[in-house]
Amino acid sequence: MIIFTYDKTFDGLLSCVFFAYEQKKFPDLILSESDQKPLFVDEQYRVITEKEKSLRVWKLLEKKLSKIARSMMLSVWLSELPETGMLLFRYIRKNIDHPRGVEMNFGDDDVLRVKEIAQKVAREAEQLRQFVRFQETADGIYFAPVSPRYDVLSLIVSHFQSRYAGQSWIIYDTNRNTGLYYDTRSVVEVSFSQKDLSDLKLGALDEEKLSGDEAFVQQMWKEYFKSTSIKERINLKLQRQHMPRRYWKYLTEIP
Amino acid sequence: MKILADAAKYDVSCASSGTSRGSAKNGIGTATGWGICHSFTPDGRCISLFKILLTNHCIYDCAYCSNRRSNDVVRSAFTAEELAELTIEFYKRNYIEGLFLSSGVMRNPDYTMEQMLRVVMLLRETHRFNGYIHMKSIPGASSELIARAGTYVDRMSVNLEIPSEQNLKLLAPEKDYESVFAPMRFIQQGMLESAEDRRKFRSAPRFVPAGQSTQVIIGATPDTDKQILTLASALYKRPSFKRVYYSGYIPVNKNDSRLPVITTPPLVRENRLYQADWLMRFYQFKASEIVDDTHPDLELDIDPKMGWALRNPAFFPVDINAAPYEMVLRVPGIGVKSAKLIVASRRYGRLNSVQLKKMGVVMKRAQYFIVCRELPMRTVNELTPQYVRRQVSQKQKKQAADLLQYSIDWGE
């Protein structure tokens, strides 16, 4: 069994591809330094991330793959699933080895899996666009805590930036303890202390931290949500299908 | 708020798609092109737009409507300023994509339309709101008012409500088809003219860029699915028409001899109609293929695509590895997405049933209608349509009690 170790960055993964073709050694497993190694290892290589090498691999992929396929690869990377390293390695290798590339061959398990994961990540980003709920704070910042399954904040910046160009807002990922702060000009990354974070995880902010109108608007929204439902058509399963329970803790309208 | 949201809820349309508009300087909001659902109510319907009536006062007396003149309900109204302000506050918090403004008819159609126009103008001009606005055109309103409103809103709609004219006359004596079709024609004309102008001058104003839609109530009258679908397909032929919505009749008014007595709304029939609607819009089916004189109504136990397939066994089996896209699309259990995946992937090699399954084909239904690399030949032609029908028809399973229910306070 051949294993590679790398620094768990996307550039590192592309460097692994370069290393493999250079040395003609193809790994059965790609792990980070700290991961638990399997028992029977024949050869182990430590791949050092080099920007030029990863760029050369990426340049080749730009020639072989469509823009959609490349952005799918980046989405798969954002999923942070344990299988991503090896899956992307196999995907890249298949595309390099096939004269025309295999991105449209959905009969292939890896190609299909890349598409599936990319779709899951895209769906998570879409659901953030749907279910982010801002609360206006006393200092006029619109604040929204979120807890997405995958690391998708980078995929939704442009949407919120153009839609809410005139108001400053924070979208905060309470799982990864990192957030985006937009001050009506540009977006910067922010993070809070552990103590503040545990307060945020509860969802609703303290009353004294909210602006004067906030409670009223929230009340109106709750009222609207309640009266717009049709009693004769109750279908809670369908509601959960569209709006999974894991989003409910930050939704203003759910009691 | 409670009264007016409650009264507006029976309108089905909530789509916020069809317009793409970037943000403007000093303005708020964008329209994304595909629309976003921001929440889902316990009935499983999406909240994309803030769907509200300006008022529930009404001079008409339509049998199917909860706001009719003869009903004894609390009447209420928003002022234009209140409504515009509330929309902006909701929008800023990412609750909604925009506003769906409808209204009961106060004093006369023109007066009502003017009030609605004021809300829309406040939003667009004072608040510089760039989000989505869907406005109901009031039947009987003058064409100048419709023309002015059309330059502010994204979508305008007039509800047909009843799928045939004689039944509309029966249930809504003050309305007729002309009062519905005249504004529809006018909106379409405005759109086409605007599109023509915009070809010449890019700065020419847009008129109802997201087109128009309409709604028909299902099950309030004895009209057949054939009548409904023929009507819908005729509407879809018009260039401005984006959607027809089907709304299962809910008895909001008791003791009216003109209306049927039902306990639950015809949800399955409504679902089948939407499936048929999809077949017409995305699967290249004609209305006459889905329903005809011998089958004027859709079958409730199988979906309309399966129904067509069982009536036309000679069309099958379809060879997955060779048939053109249009034929693959006609196989029950294969949707638009999986059909596209199949057509793209089979260039790399012949596909087998395991691969099809992974691509999202529902083999439970598709197996009787296809041949692929290794599937044995047990198609609909050998097994007979009657046998296949027994296999695929859905048993009316009693929905298991939902353990995850949370309590809903109806305020009664």
Quick description:
The complex is a heterodimer of chains A (255) and B (412). By secondary structure, chain A is of the alpha/beta class.
Describe what you observe in this structure.
The complex is a heterodimer of chains A (255) and B (412). By secondary structure, chain A is α/β, with parallel strands linked by helices. Chain A folds into 2 domains: 2-123, no CATH class; 132-250, no CATH class. Chain A has helices at residues 10-23, 51-64, 67-78, 84-97, 109-131, 153-163, 194-200, 214-227, 236-242; strands at residues 2-6, 29-32, 43-46, 135-136, 142-146, 169-173, 178-182, 187-190. In chain A, the strands form 2 sheets. Chain A has a 5-stranded mixed sheet, with helices on one face. Chain A has a 3-stranded parallel sheet with strand order 2-1-3, with helices on one face. Chain B has 412 residues and is of the alpha/beta class. Chain B has 16 helices and 12 strands. Chain B has helices spanning 2-8, 80-92, 109-126, 143-150, 165-171, 177-200, 225-236, 267-282, 287-290, 304-311, 325-328, 336-345, 353-358, 363-366, 380-383, 385-392; strands spanning 20-21, 31-32, 39-40, 46-47, 49-53, 98-102, 132-136, 155-157, 212-218, 241-248, 318-319, 370-371. The chains are: A alpha/beta (255), B alpha/beta (412).
